[in-house]
Specification:
Keywords: Membrane, Transmembrane, Transmembrane helix. The strands form two sheets. The chain has a three-stranded antiparallel sheet with strand order 2-3-5, with no helix packed on it. Strands 1-4 form a two-stranded antiparallel sheet. The protein has two helices and five strands. Strand 2 and strand 3 (about 40) form a beta hairpin. The chain has one domain (about 1-100). The protein has helices at about 1-15, 70-100; strands spanning about 20, 30, 40, 55, 65.
Length: about 100
Amino acid sequence: MVVLSFIVVLLTPFVIPATIMNHAQLSEVRLGMPFPFVQQRASLTPLGHEFPFKLRILNPLENPTRILSGNLILDVIIVYIGLWAVTQAVKKGNRFFKSLRRV
């Protein structure tokens, strides 16, 4: 389940976009959920009337990119706990419904 948590967290910058409200935010675009763990400096020059806009992860070869490892580890732990809680609830639910069938 740790591997699944890691995969889910790594997919978030590709799936969930960041909202950019002004030019200043382009110098430090933070992506990832639940806590941003990818930081990019976007080399885009949108016109003023194009704000706000959504931005997903850009090519790291063209845009300087940093991985915030502390946030990445925290995200994996949070997603792991969430998945563990869901699986425990499903197991308890299955046992509950099986006990109702026996009655």
